[in-house]
## 1
Amino acid sequence: MAHDPILPSNPTPEERAAFVMFRLEQFIREGKTIDEGMSLKRWQTMAQQEIAATILDAQRAMHQDEPITRRMLFIFGASITTIGFWGAAVSLHNVGYVVGASVCMAAGLALLAVAGEWKIRGFWRSKEAVKRRSNLAKVETLNKRVKKLLTDLEGEAESLDKALKKVRKTASAR
């Protein structure tokens, strides 16, 4: 892959797998040079850690959403039941219109508040995911720059060594 796969705030298993494959490909490409390679044992360790981190992240996201989902379902059920009960009481003329309308409006507002919270959480998660991807891209760019600088410095060191050997050879010939 040429670029970092973009994960949504709640990625599917296929998207998580694509991300893990991307990371494993990075491990292989970054650890393999002409004079050194990545040992199988090291690659296996890195792959195992990456897969474990991805699975842990998926489990954490699932457990994090569970109480929120339960609360939303509870408030949704309570609001619908309240609206139904008070609507029936008003329609049977057992309760005044103002009282019934007030209770139904309060239940509806509670329902809207929970739905709004759900949307805000989704927006916040996607914003955090974008920030994480941006930070990861910055780190990877910095890693590439450091590797390029290291390669440049090694090349410069080799040319200085050659120049030093040449100077020593000419000095010893005198």
## 2
Amino acid sequence: MSTIQRVNFEPVSDLLKTQVRDFALADKTIADPLNATAFVDGEYFIINSSYQAARAASVAGNGNFPTQTSYPVFMERGRSDVLASAARKIALIFLGDWEADTRIFDATAVVSGGAAITFVGQPLKVASLTIGSKIVCGLVGAVAGDGEPIVGRVTRLPANNGGKLRYVRASTI
């Protein structure tokens, strides 16, 4: 299990080939850093039918997962430019191949036919997780054919990476 800190998501690859796109939040209250349900960097969001960013899974409890592709937040919470905007937009890494370290994961969770995160190359999916006292949408282990969208593959395990999970998001996941 990881912990939420000030920096939870750090790209380790060049981001020049990626597209980071701003989307208005479906729930504007989660932009407020004092809100108990505020988003964190590295948390996963989907694009809803109104072309807005919405949490990838219900945060009502552990184990809920999205049924569509989701994207990580690439900005810190509490930014004044987000809070000053009526649209309350957040930046998501939307397109391209990249590799990153994250703290927004649960290596031991087994969600909906998935598996604990145990090996390099393992597929990853998104689920609702409790990290510390906060419920977020983060990464858990997957297995081939478990039915949920794969968002990346493990490239470095937390035990060998200072407690952070390193993974790759590639167009050929």
## 3
Amino acid sequence: MAKDVYFTANASDYTQLEGLYITEKDPPGFVTGVSLNAVGIIGVTTRGPTTVTQVDSAARFVEIFGGRDYGSGGTLINKIWKDIINKPFGTMYIKRVAASDAVAGAKAFAAASATAAITVTATSVGQWSTSANGGPKITIANATNGDSDYFNLTVSYQGSATTYENIVTTSTATDDDVAAIIGDDDGTLISVTITNNVRPANAASTALSSGSDGTLASADFTSALTAIANTEGPKIIFCADVATSQANLNAQIVTDAATVSDKIFVTWAGVHGQTPAAEASTVGTQITTRSDRIVWCYNSPYTIDPTTGTQIQVSPAPWMAAILSQTDVDTHPGSADNVTHTAGIRKLTNTSLSRANLITLRDAGICAFEKLPEGFVFRSGVTTNLTSGLTEITRRRMTDYIQLSLANRLRYYVKRKNTTANRAAVRADIENFLTSLAIRDRIVDTLSDGSPAFAIDQDGVNNANTRAQGIENVFLQVKLINHILSLALLTEIGTTVSITEQ
């Protein structure tokens, strides 16, 4: 490159020395729509970490958090498993609820000299890791490399085995060396810590001990809810099955819903088979501050337990969460198109909801499941907010989509110079995004002349004083697409009807 050609982003360089200056400008950006489909779930599992963990498939969930039970059938332990079977979910963020006094199983192994060598510990708390519940068995054997200072460690669990080869714990080894071999994947069952720098003696199929579930308390659920509410990623949150105190959990939902601007909480009474009147009373008592970020569901479905082949009664909340996770923000959750997402339902607890019952539930801000000829659907798609204009789930989700999508782009203008060009760029980004939605009949309605139904005001909401303070206001009005909530077919049919041709 010639010495008289200089690349710079600083315009003040131009006058410092004669030459050719090249300043590369960023091409115009654009608003990219955000995804509001990721689901956050709190609840009891058979095992797994207690930190919020992203899971992208049902198989990965089982690998990390276990299946239905401890592996031998019997009592259903995993309540999140119970709530995700037979329904579609995409990305899930799992927050396992475990008792504060739960303990991870462990086993100490000594050298041939009886000196303590290593301790193998289950990577998650709970009685899943004990021998009585089919927990991991540890085998220590000669190393693959033939060196007597090294050893292989095999973990056998539920019919499969994983061998970690050529581990060394002599004086040259550290805990980090062992951790690197075993790894830290969320699905790993055990960790190893070095007690003394000696090789443990060979041992055959040895169980862990001392694993305990502890005693679950209401606070274990409410703290888990707050943790996942404050996690970036999940946009639809529910608690699997029922909490230790569903009333306390719903109270925490009220608190957390007031602190977020990008999430919806789906919940229920925690009681199967309440009458519509009792359900309406419960939501009025427990949702003390109504919010369009809280969705209350009613009428528990039955689905098939794939392990036992029997029908089990489940909460209606995860079905709503599944529908929201699989549909666009402007799709009504009660649309007949959603029957594909509820195909796993076999029947409903209340099979005789009357029109009066459905009106009672809707007026209370409750989404009620019912059986229609095409399948199982929610009759109403309402939030617990009874304020006119804020009652529909789609209104809340479409608003979030627009605001969060715009925020992701407009944040890059913060601290830039408040020039006419930058103000025009802000306007252009908003206009282009909303126009593209309207053209595709998504979210943004159109006016009678076919133009997008939105307005942007920058001049009327700013003055020299506000701009001198570094404040730039943009007032945006958007008319959202409506949904046909009631379709009236007006008929006049009879032999005496007079038809006038148009």
